[in-house]
Design brief:
heterodimer; A: 875 residues; mainly beta; Porin; 2 domains; 16-stranded antiparallel β-barrel; 12-stranded antiparallel beta barrel; 5 helices; 44 strands; B: 74 residues; mainly alpha; 43% helix; 0% strand; elongated
Chain lengths: 875, 74
Amino acid sequence: MAVTKLKLTKTKPKRSANASLQALMAAALALPGLIAAPAYAEDDEVGFQYGHYQEGKRQLFDAKSQLNPIEVDSLQGSAKIKLADRLKFAFNYTQDTWSGATPISTAPVTRNANRLRVEGDINSGATPLIGDTQGVFDKHLTPMKLSTPGDLGSTVLGKDTRLVHTLSFASPETRKQGDFKLSYEWDKAALDMGGGISIEKDYESRFGNLGGRWDFNQKLTSVSAGVSYTNSHTHAMLDHDAAPYYFTRGSLNPYDNTVNFATDSSGIKTIDGNKEDWATHLGLTQILNKNALVNLNLGYTHSSGFMENPYKVVTFMFVDPKSQLRPDGNYNGYYASLLEQRPDERNQWTENLRYVQYIGALDASLHFDYRFFHDDWGINAHTFELDWGQPLGNGWTVTPRFRYYSQSAADFYQPVFLAKQGLPGAGILNPDGTANGKYPSNLSLSTLPSSYSSDHRLSGYGALSGGVTLNKQFAKGVNFEMGFEYYTHAGSLKLGGGSEGSYADFNYYVANAAMKVNLDALASADSGHSHHSNSDHHVGHSGHGSHAPAGVMFDHALHKAGYVMVGYRYMYGNQAGNILHGDSFANDTDISKHGCANNPCSTAPTYMTMHMHMLDLMVAPTDWLTLMLMPQFVDMNMNLHDLKGAPDDPNPHVHPGGHATGGVGDTGMYAITKLFDRPGHHINLSLGISAPTGDVGVKLRDAHHSGDLFIHYGMQLGSGTWDFKPALTYTGELDKWSWGIQASGTKRLESKNSSGFAFGDIFQSTVWGGYNLTDWLVASIRGVYTVQGTIKGEFNGPHLGDGAEGRAWGGSQDYTGNYGGRFWDVGFGLSTMIPGGDLRGNRLSFEWLQPVHDDVNGYQVERDAALSATWSYMF
Amino acid sequence: MKARNFVLSVMCCVAYSGISGCTAVQPWERGNFAKPHMALDPDPLGSALSEHNYSSREGAAAGSSAGGGGCGCY
């Protein structure tokens, strides 16, 4: 559950680029009050990280799954800044988007739960079967293989004890977390408090923490302690294909959790639950000698409330040993699935030992961690970790790492459960497999275990992982990192045996890339450079006002060869409200008749929200040329509503809570050159290419037996085509005034992408004016006109609105003619260049874009607002 | 529980010998601890990502810190 931690004893050293700096530091450490405790002073730092998690395929034996295994795209941003001399503030933002197949249950292979289903033109691969099915069991209640699974009249082929995961595919989902820490340092102590919130469609978690650290023994020893509280709420929508099955058990209702049935016709069932965690820890860090330190941590966590995974079901074999035997001497019985049940309390203890050793001969560091975890669910786990940090010279560091983990199973874990009774609600079977018209008598819950789960995370297994991180520290305080880790989970790797079978083995890999900017190091490196003085570089830069408002890109080039700029750009856009047809409001009847080309329309968007995170990396190889690289990360959210008065869709597409997608977007590469550059007047030309790194094959999960369908065009993560993106910009300034005008465009270089379509070309023109309210604050106003064409082509696979037999009709968002249009906006911006202090030279800009007029192609939901925010630093 | 007691006693020994047994390291002798790769956690961003992946796939990952956090139960 724990994700991004605000580690209370987390330490961060001064980045020392060379030996003389280290010597200086060692001298500085000798000064009273400056002695760094085992926990070092933290620098102001900004960091960004992208990570990709990809799981491998699972062993499915008889079934061939076409479902892609789960993958996760993660984005992290963090900032640590000094608010005052001893007061620090740290902020982290994390977001993950995941989609793909994971186990929903475990069942005997003979149940054929990963069955291949082919319907019409759709080959949907393995789709999970977790409803009731009939089966044959021998005298020892072992599952028997049938020539036709589920058909009691078919030939019994013999005993089959193999197990297999039942895989289920999930549509993309996104989690977002923001958390902060505020800390105050005394000479020999520190106090910090933090908190945060994590939000998913079906899970919301809020947390707060308080911690302290005391240094003594000439700062050779530090003691830390902390306490935290987390409150989490689950609001899970149960699989609408599967939910009808696991509640109909006659009078048997083992669920102690609230299961809510929707009152409308959607048939959606939800589970709501609350969970609380109290955690405490006590830590000791000790410098052992001038080359080694040790850190000990004891932790205790008490959790109570809803701890089930609402999407995991447990396969039960219902066989009544008192029932009549079949002529072949076997029993007839049922496979059925129940939602998992876990205890409502959990006490967890951890003991963690970390040892850090400096290896002088190689200038290397060795990290050894051992952690022992124990809880009252019966899980004992050992973790060993070994890292070797090896500087290679020129700022390069390579860190190979190795990890081994082993856990015993929870007491209530079993891959499959056996209930020696008839299945409540299902008819008693005759020896020949026909129903005899009678039902099992009411059963008491005592025939079932009080808790049961087949979640493989609670099974006994071991895991080995190894990886390497490569890190390049540039002298000016900028640090780039790339890492890779491969992880293998196997029952056979468990310490001491007694583990899960090999059917549950799986692997994953994680690749990550990060950029960290040390603002203190930048500031100090910068003050040593005589070739660009303060007035030229920082103040001068903000002063001449040639920077456009936050929503404008490609407006400026770097001044001199060798300059570098790093930046981060965030854009938010929201569409909500009325549906427009052209520039006027459309009513539901009109939309349902004309909004979906030649088909009837059943839905229209209620809202569509987009967030874009971009890194802005600029370098000037010569005075006249600036190169720019812009990787993007996007996530989107959309909800639909039924159109009133529309004819009933025979295959409605129900999805309360909406759809979400997210991940890496397209990557921009640009070259900017100064065509004209005189005091007061500048003309820049930018020529760029956008590479189709964003996925345009994002699909919805197979629901309502309609197969895997492409999600709406606007929810795909990129354009899918190579695009040409030119921009011509004029900027000028006089005294406190600045202004600019820009024309820019996006021309698709391909007629269709790998999914069969291409978004329309874009042309945009904008004009703005700014006024310096103070030396460091600029206010701006801007007008924007944008025109974009409709989508060319169409999805080349099954999608909503393709008019296929048995498919939901879809809505206006599924038709290519309902994209693009002519749009007018007004922007209000503020921009600041921090004039002094540790953060001097950092530039922050915000701009609010207010739509003033829309003239859309076809039928589209109107635009609500957009926001741009940027941070940048040039050196 | 046996394993746990063993671990606890090892930790106590280390802690005791650490405090009492080590020679005083003067502040100017602590230069090695200032090296980036000598930090207790040299790469907080990277380890947060790894921890998140472990916690979504392992039974014991909760309770490793007193920080709190979301689910991300993929």
